[in-house]
């Protein structure tokens, strides 16, 4: 049996499909499993042990993309897939799923596109408190799969050896020894203003965490287009600490290196974005900040023995929102979260992880 999975667009969305990949492999151990993804999120599945082939589509803004998509469609049709599952539901993914020529095609029941699938699954457009993994798992319903369980179906991402080695060398060059120092990774950027916690809040948090334990080394990271955000947070935190030696903002990592970095950390802190979901594929304690989104939809999907703290304002009438316009106009869903509250969650996560470690000895 030959199966094609399609999930275009964002890193976190692709991370949340990995339980589907492992479930299909368990059900069909001898099947050929292929995954169609865009370049930005391809590293999430590039080393997945359950996949036989990762197909990388042209990026959305590629010149002459239509011609490239038609060439891709011809390749998909020539591969003779028996089953295609569109885990995305967008116009492009629906078209490529249809053009694959797979005799059975599963996708969401969406106006103007549902006809492209042989099996259609209802998808609510409401922002309800239901995890994204569960939403995508719905597409396995026509195949007779039961509900997912984070204990047996966690998200996952493989760490390539070259990434682990590169991260180890970079940390050594910065004077950080994870075997001795307590490494905390703080991701400070976001894809849009709705998910961006204020720079001053991040800086206050970093300074507070560093002040609470001299053994801590805090690496402040950001997306490639927002290096200035990490540098601002680092500079403000060092100024508040009146020292320059335990906060680092000049070490850059690609996506797989980020996964390797998290593996060496005692804690990861970040907003609801791709790096948070990558961190969620590890067993490292995670503190997530949720503004327009809900932790019930986007918190790490992993076994309960791994420590997760979610910080959000549960009593705001405007949450969750579609992130098209801030009704109050001040992005209060994140802006009103105090650094002290996030610091408390971080200390709780570290303490809980320490107790779990002691209990397992």
Topology:
Elements: E1 2-6, H1 11-15, H2 18-27, E2 32-37, H3 42-46, E3 53-56, H4 65-78, E4 83-86, H5 91-99, E5 104-108, E6 119-121, H6 132-137, H7 161-173, E7 182-187, H8 199-212, E8 216-221, H9 227-241, E9 247-248, H10 255-263, E10 267-271, H11 274-279, E11 286-290, H12 295-298, E12 308-312, H13 332-335, H14 339-360
Parallel strand pairs: 1-2, 1-4, 2-3, 4-5, 5-6, 7-8, 7-10, 8-9, 10-11, 11-12
Helix pairs in contact: 7-10, 8-9, 8-14
Class from secondary-structure proportions:
alpha/beta
Rg estimate, integer Å: 21 Å
Low-confidence segments, given as residue ranges, are 356-361
The biggest sheet, with number of strands, parallel, antiparallel or mixed sense and barrel status, is: 6 strands, parallel
Question: How much helicity do the residues have?
Answer: 25-40%
What is the mean predicted local confidence, pLDDT?
A: 93
CATH class value of the largest domain: Alpha Beta
User: Would you list the SSEs in sequence order as H and E?
Assistant: EHHEHEHEHEEHHEHEHEHEHEHEHH
Q: How many distinct helices?
A: 14
Q: What number of structural domains do the residues give?
A: 2
End-to-end gap: 44 Å
- Global shape: globular
**CATH-defined architecture of the largest domain:** 3-Layer(aba) Sandwich
Strand order of the largest sheet: 3-2-1-4-5-6
Number of strands: 12
CATH topology of the largest domain: Rossmann fold
CATH superfamily of the largest domain: Glycogen Phosphorylase B
Strand content: 15-25%
